[in-house]
């Protein structure tokens, strides 16, 4: 019998790659689906199996991290071997506009899931999607022992979720781990995060659909990796004998400006002709520099990155150019990458 996993956030960037990984490993995958007035399963449509499928290995359940009782019921029903908590209001800028909502979903949502595991009595392991945003203004390179200094409601909520995860491990002996992941991107990245906003704009400017791209702070330094590689690290953390916390990063810094330059160059464009500043995209308090030290993940998990920011910019531009060409020619847009 293969293992069973439950993923919150399965419709997001990471959830979709993780579901693919686990299905390929023979897991039965259950995903938590938020009720939405429009379809929100675009990233997993290519692996979706309808209710009539004879041997379903991917099942979706309507639930929400705001609804603790539904989480308990779901855990009892599924009794998963592994739980991956990827669900969150994950946008840092938006968290300044909706701080309480972000705290509820991203912070308390994690506690609800931990408590639901305890209340259901199900023996399981849980992965918590912690973030480099917890380090905030702590100077780089950041590692597992770097003190947190979050700079946004999102970062604060993730710190709360991080410590709740540690607390359930210490208090109840739960196999609960934190993956402290630095920024990771892909052609499936949400369109309002800076990398995808840039690569999508490159495709649209080339096609004559857009002329200007408005951005905020170009001086911020980030450590950008490739999402499909990062979900492997999540899985590896739950396969260890003992629970622990790990930084996952490339260790290679780049500014937003450098990413911008590389992406526009990959599309044969000069970014300075098209990019303009809009203060709307600045944050009330910014995180200036995040660069991770992935040494512990390399030593204990055998995990190493193989895609770095420049190559990432190129592959995202290629994907956005191809997707737009397919859309304009009326053929189906490829999502299976
Ligand atoms: P996305 O924003 O792409 O996906 C977030 C997911 O959470 C979506 O499936 C979304 O559903 C779901 N979600 C939002 N609110 C709720 C809720 N109330 N109840 C249940 N599900 C909810 O994020 P990523 O895939 O990029 O990131 C995955 C996780 O990792 C997040 O927790 C994020 O904060 C964290 N993280 C991400 C990093 C990155 O660089 N990508 C780095 C470090 C941490 P819907 O599709 O319906 O909106
Ligand atoms: P981040 O990612 O805040 O690091 O959080 P984002 O791509 O939003 O911003 C990265 C940097 O780019 C600057 N920036 C802009 N950002 C956006 N979104 N839009 C703009 O127009 C723009 N112009 C400049 C930002 O100020 C920032 O410095 C991501 C999310 O995935 C989190 O969920 C995750 O936890 C962290 O990465 C690690």
Automatic annotation (TrEMBL):
Taxonomic superkingdom: Bacteria
Domain named NAD(P)-binding: residues: 6-316
A GO molecular-function annotation: GDP-mannose 4,6-dehydratase activity
The keyword ATP-binding appears for this protein: no
Taxonomic classification: Bacteria, Bacillati, Actinomycetota, Actinomycetes, Kitasatosporales
CDD domains: GDP_MD_SDR_e
Designated gene of the protein: gmd
Organism listed in the record: Streptomyces chisholmiae
Function as written in the Swiss-Prot or TrEMBL entry: Catalyzes the conversion of GDP-D-mannose to GDP-4-dehydro-6-deoxy-D-mannose.
Enzymatic reactions: GDP-alpha-D-mannose = GDP-4-dehydro-alpha-D-rhamnose + H2O
Protein keywords: Lyase, NADP
SUPFAM superfamilies: NAD(P)-binding Rossmann-fold domains
Cross-referenced Gene3D superfamilies: NAD(P)-binding Rossmann-like Domain (3.40.50.720), UDP-galactose 4-epimerase, domain 1 (3.90.25.10)
Name of the molecule in the record: GDP-mannose 4,6-dehydratase
Family: Belongs to the NAD(P)-dependent epimerase/dehydratase family. GDP-mannose 4,6-dehydratase subfamily.
InterPro entries, sorted: GDP_Man_deHydtase, NAD(P)-bd_dom, NAD(P)-bd_dom_sf
Cofactor(s) recorded in Swiss-Prot or TrEMBL: NADP(+)
EC number: 4.2.1.47
């Amino acid at each position: 019998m293969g293992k069973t996993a439950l993923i919150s956030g399965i419709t997001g960037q990471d959830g979709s790659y993780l579901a693919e990984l686990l299905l390929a490993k023979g897991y039965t995958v259950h995903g938590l689906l938020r009720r939405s007035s429009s379809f929100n399963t675009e990233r997993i449509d290519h692996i979706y199996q309808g209710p009539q499928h004879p041997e379903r290995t991917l099942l979706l359940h309507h639930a929400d991290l705001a609804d603790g009782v539904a989480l308990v019921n779901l855990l009892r029903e599924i009794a998963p071997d592994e739980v991956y908590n990827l669900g969150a209001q994950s946008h840092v800028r938006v968290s300044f506009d909706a701080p309480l909502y972000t705290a509820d979903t991203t912070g308390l949502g994690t506690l609800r899931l931990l408590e639901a595991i305890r209340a259901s009595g199900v023996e399981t392991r849980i992965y918590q999607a912690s973030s480099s945003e917890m380090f905030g203004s702590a100077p780089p390179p950041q590692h597992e022992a770097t003190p947190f200094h979050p700079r946004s409601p999102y970062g604060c909520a993730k710190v709360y979720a991080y410590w709740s995860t540690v607390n359930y491990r210490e208090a109840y002996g739960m196999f609960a781990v934190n993956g402290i992941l630095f920024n990771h991107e892909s052609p499936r990245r949400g369109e309002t995060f800076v990398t995808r906003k840039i690569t999508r704009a490159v495709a649209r400017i080339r096609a004559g659909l857009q002329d200007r791209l408005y951005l905020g702070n170009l001086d911020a330094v980030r450590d950008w990796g490739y999402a499909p590689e990062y979900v492997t690290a999540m899985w590896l953390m739950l396969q260890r004998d003992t629970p622990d916390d790990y930084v996952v990063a490339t260790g290679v810094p780049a500014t937003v400006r450098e990413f911008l330059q590389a992406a526009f160059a990959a599309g044969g464009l000069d970014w300075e002709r098209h990019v303009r500043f809009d203060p709307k995209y600045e944050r009330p308090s910014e995180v200036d520099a995040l660069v991770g030290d992935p040494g512990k993940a390399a030593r204990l998990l055998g995990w190493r990155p193989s895609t770095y920011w420049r190559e990432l910019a190129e592959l995202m531009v290629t994907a956005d150019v191809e997707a737009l060409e397919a859309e304009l020619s009326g053929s189906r847009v490829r999502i299976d990458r």
